[in-house]
Structure formats: C-alpha cells, structure tokens
C-alpha cells in the first residue's frame, strides 16, 4: 500500500482484461487512464499480457508458490489505492482469464483486493456493452472486500465507438464516462484522506481480520 502524504497523487492501476491485440477494452482502459491522469492521479496502465499465468492449481501453488504473472498483478495492486478494470463479457459473465488471475492473486497475503476501491468498465460490440459481465465480476471482488463503485460504464457497439484521438464518438457518452471517472476519483480521495471510512467499511462487512475466522477477505 502506498504511504500517503496529504497532497501525494492517488495511485490508480488501470488495465483491460482482454489479451487480444486489438482489444476494445484495452482502448477503453487507455482512455480512462488519460482521464485519470488529467485529473491529477498517478496512473499505472497495465495490459492483461503483463499478468500471464497458468490455470490455478493447488498442487502447483503448494510446490512452486504463486506464478510470476500473479505476483506482478499483486505488486502493481499493492502500489495502488484503487484499480480500474475494463473487461469483456464472455457468455454473460467475466472472462476466465480474469477470474483465474483474481483467484491466484487472492492467495497472496496480505490479500490485496480488500483495501482497494474499484471502478468497472466494459466494452462489447453488442447492444448492452458487456454490462452483464460486470455484475458477475462484482461477485469475486466484493467477496474479497473490494469497494466496488456503484456506477459502472458499459460501452455498446465498441467496434464503432472510438474516434481517432481515442475518445468516444458520442459526446454525451464521453461526458458520462468523464463524470463516472471523476466521481470515482473523488470517492477514492475522500477515503484515502479520511481513513476513518476504511474502518467503517470493514465493520460493515462484519470482517474480523484478527480472529482470522474466514478466508473471505483476509489480510
Ligand atoms: C464473446 N463476446 C460476447 N459479447 C457480449 O456482449 N456478450 C457475451 O456474452 C459475449 N460472449 C463471448 C464469449 C466468447 C468466448 C468470446 C470470445 C466473445 C464478444 C466480445 O464482447 C467481443 O469479442 C469483444 O470485442 C471482446 O473484447 P475485446 O477483446 O475487444 O476487449
């Protein structure tokens, strides 16, 4: 976790959860990274390819520990106050690649998702923009104690949604994205600067970290 001075920039990890070179979600992640930087945040823009890892296997974990790609995701999360994922929707859910990464990273202590805020985005050529996948993605993240921002942003018809400079062709949508990102950043800022909120969140979760009674959101 970064150590904070009052005016240090907020650290935000941003990545698209598709490994494909022409990924619309990677484009959306880049656009949001630019918006966050313009608002004064310090952004670490990652690619899912930075987090390449095998399928979770408890035997491999016992014999060899956590793979390098999962450790890389852990380290970059650990350096962040918050993270943003732009994820494709696969069969009305989150991609297996992303769930696999969350599973591996959740095995590392202290469990890193618990102390973070997250903003979820999706892009899809379909008419609903992959939004169902984000509801599925909320489940493991909220289970792990991530404070998932209530507003999500799903970009429909993603194959024709971007213009040359990487912004959205539809100016109203661009404005909505900007409002969502700035609202998220204000919430992260309030939490990071006024840490009493953090304790309230854990109490809300009913979490008893010290008693170590559950693997739900350890750390
Ligand atoms: C898809 N796609 C898809 N799209 C969608 O809106 N709802 C869905 O349920 C699915 N299901 C699905 C399953 C599988 C296995 C694949 C490969 C694809 C289409 C998907 O949204 C499209 O490929 C996106 O462009 C993927 O995102 P990237 O790679 O462009 O970021």
The shape is globular
Strand proportion: 5-15%
Measured as a percent range, the helix fraction is 40-55%
CATH topology: Rossmann fold
Number of strands: 6
The CATH architecture: 3-Layer(aba) Sandwich
Structural class: alpha/beta
**Separation, N- and C-terminal Cα atoms:** 12 Å
Low-confidence stretches: 210-214
What's the level 1 CATH class? Alpha Beta
Radius of gyration: 17 Å
* Average pLDDT level: 91
Provide keyphrases for this structure.
alpha/beta; six-stranded parallel beta sheet; binds ligand FNR
Describe this structure in words.
With 219 residues, this protein is α/β, with parallel strands linked by helices. Helices cover 41% and strands 13% of the residues. The protein has a single domain, classed as 3-Layer(aba) Sandwich (Rossmann fold), CATH 3.40.50.360. The two termini are 12 Å apart. About 2% of the residues have low confidence. The structure holds ligand FNR. Ligand FNR binds next to helix 1.
Gist of the model:
The protein is an alpha/beta fold and 219 residues long.
Topology overview:
Elements: E1 11-16, H1 24-38, E2 42-47, H2 58-64, H3 68-78, E3 82-86, H4 96-105, E4 117-123, H5 131-143, E5 147-148, E6 153-155, H6 171-193, H7 196-205
Parallel strand pairs: 1-2, 1-3, 3-4, 4-5, 4-6
This protein binds ligand FNR.
């Amino acid at each position: 976790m970064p150590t904070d001075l009052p005016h240090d920039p907020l650290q935000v990890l941003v990545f698209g959860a598709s490994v494909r070179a022409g990924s619309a979600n990677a484009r959306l992640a880049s656009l949001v990274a630019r918006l966050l930087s313009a608002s004064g945040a310090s952004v670490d823009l990652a690619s899912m390819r930075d987090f390449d890892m095998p399928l979770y296997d408890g035997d491999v974990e016992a014999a060899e520990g956590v793979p390098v790609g999962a450790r890389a995701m852990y380290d970059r999360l650990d350096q962040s106050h918050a993270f943003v994922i732009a994820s494709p929707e696969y069969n009305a859910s989150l991609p297996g690649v992303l769930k696999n990464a969350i599973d591996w990273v959740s095995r590392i202590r202290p469990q890193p998702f618990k102390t973070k805020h997250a903003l979820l985005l999706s892009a899809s050529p379909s008419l609903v923009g992959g939004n169902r996948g984000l509801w599925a993605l909320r489940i493991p993240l909220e289970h792990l104690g991530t404070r998932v921002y209530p507003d999500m942003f799903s970009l429909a018809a993603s194959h024709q949604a971007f213009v040359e400079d990487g912004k959205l062709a539809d100016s109203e949508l661009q404005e909505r994205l900007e409002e969502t990102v700035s609202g998220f950043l204000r919430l992260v800022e309030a939490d990071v600067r006024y840490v009493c909120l953090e304790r309230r969140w854990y109490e809300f979760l009913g979490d008893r970290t010290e008693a170590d009674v559950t693997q739900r959101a350890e750390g």
